[in-house]
Predict the 3D structure of the following.
Amino acid sequence: MSTSTTPGARKGSGRPLITLSSARRHPRRHHTVERPRRSPLLTALTGLVLIYSLVPLLWLFINSTKTQEGLFGSFGLWFHSDFALWDNVVDTLTYNDGIFVRWLLNTVLYVVLGAGGATFLAVLGGYALALFNFPGKRAVFAIVIGAVAVPGTALAVPTFLMFSEMGLTNTPWAVIIPTLISPFGLYLMWVYSSEAIPTELLEAARVDGAGEFSTFFRVSLPLLGPGIVTVLLFTMVQSWNNYFLPLIMLRDSSWYPLTLGLNAWNSQASTVGGEAIFNLVITGSLLTIVPLITAFLLLQRYWRSGLTAGSVK
Amino acid sequence: MSMKRGHASSALALAATAALTLAACGSDDAGSDDAGASDAGTGDANNADAVEAALEEGGSLTIWSWETTLAQVVEDFEAEYPQVDIDLINAGSGNDQYTALQNAISAGSGIPDLAHIEYFALSQFALADALTDISQFGAAEFDGTYTPGPWNAVNQDGAIYGLPMDSGPMALFYNQTVFDEHGIDVPTTWDEYVEAARDLQAADSDVYIANDTGEAGFITSLIWQAGGQPFQVEGTEVSIDFSDEGSTVVAETWQQLIDEDLLAPITGWTDEWYQGLADGTIATLAAGAWMPANFESGVPGAAGDWRAAPLPQWENGASSSAENGGSALAIMANGENSNEALAYAFLEYANAGDGVQTKIDQGLFPGTSEHLADEEFLNAEFEYFDGQQANQVFAESAGAVPEGWSYLPFQAYANSIFNDTVGQAYVSGTTLSEGLQAWQDALVTFGNDQGFSVNQ
């Protein structure tokens, strides 16, 4: 095909003739959304980014198949002679009376209550801000936007002092309650609600005699699905990976989330008399990201449909 | 107990708070000098009774410690005194735990009754009035129980802030296999050490005598061994001076290793470091007597290769050593259960009583003279060191630690900026002496800003 002089044909590579003819009819618009222009530079850059993001994952997987000794005695990006993945997984789950499982359950608890609660509140708040008018709305807008800009890390110590006053530190509540507030999620739901729900629809529902609550649950909520999933994904990832807040709040390792627990295992190696368990830290890290990857794969189709919402009228 | 990498932020917070409360405690120091030593057995009788009474009555205690051997001690103690309930929490190692402790102190709640604190960080908490002076319970009676290094570390300005948990008299760990392979003698002086470093590199360019990318705890220990006393502390009067003979000789000797690229550019406690110890890249390691446990768990592949030898000397024929690491268990002021008498009862049991043997049995290196002189302890054969009775080396080292050393009341901060100053010698053209001078300048400024009077 490369010998052809027609620009459309050069790009065609096995496409049916109809494309060729349509390209002839519109010679200037032969790069469509389905058949974008190929830029070698862009392809190379994308390839680099792909490698950059996949190599750590690959490393993680390869090295979780090695024993502690194998880790030191073999090349990092290839397998060691003895394949110890299953032993490592079993050891990770049973080491120290199975504390890893406890950390996993803690993390799930923080994600379900924290991220779930944050999403719920963000949906309620965003919806209200998008569709109802009330005095002080601009002030709320300013506060929400401002809150998005404040890093959670900066608030951790003041929050600690406040929670300490209330006697909540070193309890799961100290992690769950601050997680419930997600200014970014609220902002996202606000924007999404105002796009996804026509005010006419609400008026129609009101005319039909529906109360605000039933309008929300029966008319609006189904329309908000993709937005909710997006916020849920964001808060979930944030809550799953949360490190600093639990670090400040929790002392008792039986309430640790996975992030803190893995760090504790890792620092064992730099502690006098502590057992170096790099193989378990690596295997534990692999196990830690599996649920996140699964969640993404399961939720992505909702998410995709969400991103295209409003693009076709 | 640990050689954790420093976290600048936590150290800063710590030092800042320490300084904030300086005004409050500065006045107490002058009056309480020698109080601990002279009161033993007289005015403390009441307090000793209080400790007994607290034990009988029982109660709860919270302990923050990352010392793994303490779990068994707690279990034994609870079995002996069922009316006492102890919550042992690992709140993180080293600086992580200090940050948590500092947060709790700032908040005024959730402070543990006892906390595990490394010697270098003790005075920082003591100055912030966060520790209880246990000489009121008669702790001065333990003078002589511990070797000089650890005992001096818990004694400050006439007060006793905790009892030594363990100690880290230094030794030279060396890879016998590597030295034998190249027919090189194990050095007994630091000059020989430099020679050996050259010979090893000449024999095999993959073999380095040691790894070093600049570590405060290590260099200060070498200065300690050389008889240097760069830090002098009297209450809030601090003097920092690296121009003494000890500091100079260390800087000059070690400079040769840096100049000739004889040190492996590997940072301690990383996985690369464990790898280097395992595969023979790093031929020696000058560290505290706590190191065997880490060899066993972190470098299992090199079992049989390594041995322990006395630390090389600065002067031919001398026998001087130093402490590296080590930690105390201290009673916190305003602890959760506010039961200092009971806390003292446990402290005494764990670090001076039956608990010591329990910890030794699990591999901890004690700071108690009695146990260090125990035949069974001294003759214990280390399977990892191919049957060597390594405790004899360590015990001898413990008795040869020069007195008069002290750390800064803001040592954690000092350690955190070590790499920005002294550490430059490892990566750029500055020398160690210039680096030490830069460290000194930075510390003098910092100390004065924090309310200490440094070099004034």
Summary: DSSP finds 14 helices and no strands in chain A. Chain A has two domains: 51-82, 84-308. Residues 85-131 of chain A form the longest helix (47 residues). Chain A touches chain B through 30 residues (CB under 8 Å).
